[in-house]
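We emphasize that the prediction below concerns an isolated chain of 80 residues; any contacts that depend on oligomerization or on bound cofactors are therefore not represented. The input was used exactly as deposited, without trimming of termini.
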Amino acid sequence: MAALFPSYVITVLELFRKHGFEAYVVGGAVRDLLCGKHPHDYDIVTSARPEETRRLCKGAGGKPGRKFRCPGPSCRRTSR
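Result of the prediction step, given as a token string:
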């Protein structure tokens, strides 16, 4: 995993996993990697609820819109 993703992506994935949540890189970054291209951004999906995600981001020093975005009011819970 370390060879595919920058350290800040690994840090976010590990943060969620350390607190018992699933977390995966998804979207265009996966497509770009499969096509042999360098992704320009990384989307992460997690099993954490929006309020848990905000708490973890805040505790890690994350600021919305900066290094990584925490979900806002537009987040929707999807069915499992």
